[in-house]
Structures are given as C-alpha cells and as structure tokens.
Amino acid sequence: MSAQSAPSIPDPSTRYRRTGQRGINSEMLSWLFMRISGVLLVILVFGHLFVNLWLGEGVKGIDFAFVGGKWASPFWQVWDLLMLWLGLIHGGNGVRTIVNDYARNPKLRLTLKGLLYFAVVVTIVLGTLVIFTFDPCPVGAEPSLLPSFCEG
Predict the structure, then answer these.
(1) Full-prediction pTM beyond 0.85?
(2) Distances, alpha carbon 53 to alpha carbons 37, 48, 56, in Å
(3) Which of 56, 94, 135, 136 could cross-link to 68 by cystine, CB 3.0-4.6 Å?
(4) pLDDT in tens, 57-76
(5) In the Cβ-directed half-sphere of 113, how many Cα atoms lie within 13 Å?
(6) Total domains, the chain
(7) What CATH number does the domain containing 31 carry?
C-alpha cells in the first residue's frame, strides 16, 4: 500500500488567483454596481418620498402643477433623472442576471437580453426627454387646455 499525499488546501487568507485570466471582470463590476446603485437608490427614493409626501400635502397635493413646479428646478430634474437611470439600469442588470441563470438555450438567452436592453434604453431615452423637455405651459397651446397657473 503506497502512501499518497493529501491535496493541499490554499491558505484562506490569500487571494485566489486564476492562471491565465486577464482583463476586466465584468461580473464583479456588475456585482459592485448593484451594491452602490442600491444604496444610492434608497437615498434617492426616500428623499423623493419625504419631499413629495411628508413636506407637502401628501398624496392629494401631487398634481400636474406640483410636478411642473418641481421640474422647473434643475436640482429636481437631476434628482429624478438619477432615480430613473439608476432604477432602470439596476433593475435591468438584475433581470439580466436572472436571464443568464435560467435561460439555458443560447439563442433564447440572446433574444431575451436583446429585448431587455432595448426596453431599458428606450425607457431611459423617453424618460430623459420627458424630464428635460417638460413644459406645463407650452407657447401657442389652446388656453382652455392649459392648467390654471399658466398665464393666459
């Protein structure tokens, strides 16, 4: 009976290194983005809820004029833009992970991720346009269709 040596286990305090792997680890960056964007989203969403519901008149005070007044300020435009972008990219990244985990067929995975990326990009573009081009009192509009705070 020959004595075989047991395989050695690397020291757990040392960093694991794969041989031959170079470049950026996109999954690690994705994981890091999810943590950072999640924290930022919590701050942005609770700030949004605090200003809209606590400081104002609650839900009954949120109307077209309220949104128009908020979006007149670049600060609130950027705040809402950050919520939009981070929320959509964070959610899209989460769905991408689910597609990678559960879609076994490579063609199905590619199709689902293509549809996901398309939906996220279209929604980001449209949402960004709405935030920066919103005008509650457009010039030349029918006066009877304008809100009461617009000057006739």
Answers:
(1) no
(2) 23, 8, 6
(3) 136
(4) 888 888 887 888 888 889 99
(5) 17
(6) 1
(7) 1.20.1300.10
